[in-house]
Task: structure prediction
Amino acid sequence: MNMSVFSRTLMLPLALITVASASAQTKKSETKPVVTAEPVKNEPVLMTIGSTKVTVAEFENVFHKNNTKEGSTDAKSLNDYVDLFVNFKLKVKEAEELGLDTAKSFKEELGGYRKQLAQPYLTDKDVNEKLLRETYDRMQEDVHASHILVKVTENALPKDTIDAYNKIMKIRARILKGEDFNKVASEKGISDDPSSKDNGGDLGFFTSLQMVYPFESAAYKTKVGEISMPVRTRYGYHIIKVTERRKAQGEVLASHIMVKTTPNMSKEDSLNAFTKITEIYNKLKAGTKFEDLAAEFSDDKSTAKKGGELPWFGTGKMPIEFEKTAFGLTTKGDFGKPMRTKYGWHIVKLNDKRGMASFEDLKNELKAKVTKDSRSQAGRASLIAKVKAEYKFKENPKLADEFVKVMDTLFFDGRWDVSKAAGLKKPMFNFNEKMYTQADFASYIASHQSKRPKTDYSIVLNQLYKQYVEESAVAYEEERLDKKYPEFKALMQEYRDGILLFELTDQKVWSKAVKDSTGSKAFYEKNKTNYMWDERAEASVYSCTDEKVAAKVRGLMKKKKSEKDILATINKDSQLNLQVETRVFNKGENEFVDKNWNPGTSLDFKSEKDKKTVIIVTAKLLKPEPKSYVDSKGMVTADYQNYLEKEWIASLKAKYPVNIDKAVLSTIK
Result:
């Protein structure tokens, strides 16, 4: 069983101890774990596991974290938790005895978690709060803009950067003299945005967090009708024309019926798709419920079972054609004409509209998005400045220039030899007493070199030096998190124990149950009566639009026509006339199959839900019998895992005797 880091994080809470750790994955900045109590002399010992003593404080720390209900704890829930806690501690102790905590893979994984958990501490929260507010304020308005792009890479040579800037300024001058922005944008050789030749650089409406941050900021600061000065992003230089602004249109709750199309589908299939969506539309106009048609005919299976309903969405979240249709509907229950997107044909129905949610309601969602956005670098930059001040940062940046004489062209191929800087050893900067030397910087250069265009050595060295100082500042702060923040130290301990628990349980139980086919099959043979099929019916369900279609179906059945032939004949004029489902049904799965629970063809049934006429053809009944090993493998594996775990826990208790002081336990509330 291959478990990703994410699945491990989900599984760790099952170990009891790491419930908070899993939630910390998505709520890092809000997580406030109970601080691990410092050992106190004569602290009451609650239990011993082998030779390991567990104090009341250690137990209460995790117990109260995972039992947040107010009031006293009843004896049963406390005892149940003690059992889970003991099992957890036994597994962790065994993992330590086996040396799993010294393995390279364990250290690397724990280090990865540490980087994730440290992120909320390695940024300036005040700056981040301002960014959140700015983002929310901008979301109150949608901006319609066009742009022209002249590409230039972030690390381009000064000459290339100047050339790109001069080119975008010449283009801007043409527009300021009266040429049409969109026509200029669509000219060959002008904009490096490939879509410009078709849309003239028109980006439509967008809101905050939908464009790269520098572009977004420039667009929101440019007045309607004006042309911005060039703005630099990671793509190059842009000039922006703002066409209009509007109050944010909020969000819409819509349902849709989709008939899927693909770019390479045949003309016949494409025509069938159009015919099908038209027929569905006509049924809607005739009064058939939207939800029923969506459930029966929509190719978007993820929404069909919910009557076609989509999650709430706002500007820029759906294909433009879809968005225009949804927001263009004004009355709840209205639906638009069939329209096409790259996914296929859609009929959209309006369910509800709402304005922008409050800042507090959106805050957590915005925080997650801002963290992944380039604007988050502002918080990092502010933190670095604070670290420099707190830890008395001093530097001599001119010492980086001394590396120019030891560089060679191999650097631009990523093959520069660090030994060439062996004579450079002077201290370059420090945080408190920790000194960073030229030798350290040389190693950094060697590990961060790559193939790149040749340029002036001093430019590259200055970039690398700045980068090295910033990374060193963040790393220095990260090293001190355990001392500065007790809750961080406690959380790291939880992750450590949780990873050990997961790793060993995977070896002893989860993966073993999957790989041990001999043991699993033997377990199945011993317990096969636990995996029984109920009585089942092998049947076909013919759903006809009305009695006339049903009569035609029966006529074809009498002629011994196959299901495929019946479908082709009946649906020749309309794809909606007949739907057929043939499979094995369990009792209670289909009401009409239940009514014809004997071999043979049923009378006509009338569906109250969709008014269709239903014919059931029951081929045969299948008696109750044990499921095969293959059919029941999922359940067998789960039960076998439980069996292996119980056996393993019993062996651990024999290896590490558990003694619980009942008198001390009774004092825990």
